[in-house]
Every structure is written in C-alpha cells, then in structure tokens.
Amino acid sequence: MLSGGPGSGKGTQCARIVETFGFKHLSAGDLLRKEVVSASEYGTMILDTIREGRIVPSAVTVKLILREMESSDNHKFLIDGFPRSEENRIAFERITGSEPDFVLFFDCPEEEMVKRVLSRNQGRIDDNIDTIKKRLKVFEALNLPVVDHYEKRGKLHRVGKFTS
Ligand code: AMP
Question: Do you know which Pfam families this protein is assigned to (predicted)?
Fold first, then answer.
C-alpha cells in the first residue's frame, strides 16, 4: 500500500514501482473518478464528496478495490491512496481477511504538497486552494492515524522528512 497527502507524488511513483516490480496498480482516487465518469449509482455522491475533499464511504471504496483485485490475473497489488482512514483500514482488513505486507508513506511538507497540486494542471475539480486545504485537514485527521497504526505494526516505510 502507498500513502501520502495530496500532491505528495503517489501517482508518479506508483507508475515507476509498477514498471520496476510488476504490481497491479489500484488507485482509490482513480477508481472513484472512473466511477463518476461511468455514471454509476454512486457517481453523484462520489463527485460531491471529492469536490468537498471528504472521504467516500468505505463500503463503496472497498467494493471498487475488491472488484479490481478479483478480476486481475496479477496477485501482487499496489494500492494507492487507500486506506484513507481507520474506518477504511478496518473495513478492508475485515472483508479481505488480510493486511498489507508493506506500506510506503510519502512524508511530504505541506507547502510542497500545495505547490505541486496547484501546478499540476490535470483538470481535477479538487485541485483548487479551497479543496486542497480541506483535503490536507482530512489527511491529517484521518490518514495519519492509519500511518501510525502501520508504524506500530512495523510495516511502515517512510520516505521524506524524518522526525525523531
Ligand atoms: P487522490 O486522487 O488520492 O488525491 O484522491 C482524490 C479524492 O478522492 C480524495 O480527496 C477523496 O475525496 C477521494 N478518495 C480517494 N481515496 C479515497 C479513499 N480511500 N476513501 C475515500 N475517498 C477517497
């Protein structure tokens, strides 16, 4: 699994990791955006949630990830941007009965993340300063406890700034 705040470089590095190690890449954000475009029953709710920088309910995200895992021939998965919260993590572990072997965390300074998101020009509705501020708050409140959990389990590999 790969974790990091908005603009920390998850997508870019996932492409490289996949190329080098042959994982099947599953990006929670990309799967949710695909669901919006495909006009699924959850489309409007997902779009509103992304626009607000909030977290889509675990039931929906876990279902999308599992669907991709089950339909893939590959048995090595690189799951990016998930779990985003303890609720995500617990739901995933309960449903799959498994834990990640390895969690990579991009510990990127906030100013750098803001700068990168504002300059990436990918046409995303959530790449504006108001939504970024909300995404950063959500990241700190909900995602960092997941990072702490994996650190305690000895699974976390941190890239970037170090604290003692
Ligand atoms: P990302 O592409 O990873 O930056 O995700 C963009 C947006 O998709 C987030 O701000 C959330 O609104 C939503 N999202 C991404 N991953 C998840 C997840 N694991 N659970 C719920 N919502 C998510």
Answer: ADK
Which of 98, 83, 84, 74 lies closest to 24 in space, CA to CA?
74
Residue 127 beta carbon below 6 angstroms from any ligand 1 atom: no
Cα–Cα distance, 84 to 53 (Å, whole number): 12
- Whole-number Å distance between alpha carbons of 4 and 30: 15
The answer to whether residue 164 scores a pLDDT higher than 60 is no
Q: So what's the pLDDT on residue 39?
A: 83
Q: What is the pTM of this model?
A: 0.89
pLDDT in tens, 59-97: 999 999 999 999 999 999 999 999 999 999 999 999 999
DSSP count for the chain of H helices, then E strands: 8, 5
Pocket test for ligand 1, best of 32, 87, 133 (most atoms within 8 A of CB): 32
Q: What residue ranges define each of the domains in the chain, with the CATH number in brackets?
A: 2-159 (3.40.50.300)
For a mutational test of ligand 1's pocket, the pick from 120, 126, 135, i.e. the residue with the most ligand atoms closer than 8 A to its C-beta, is: 126
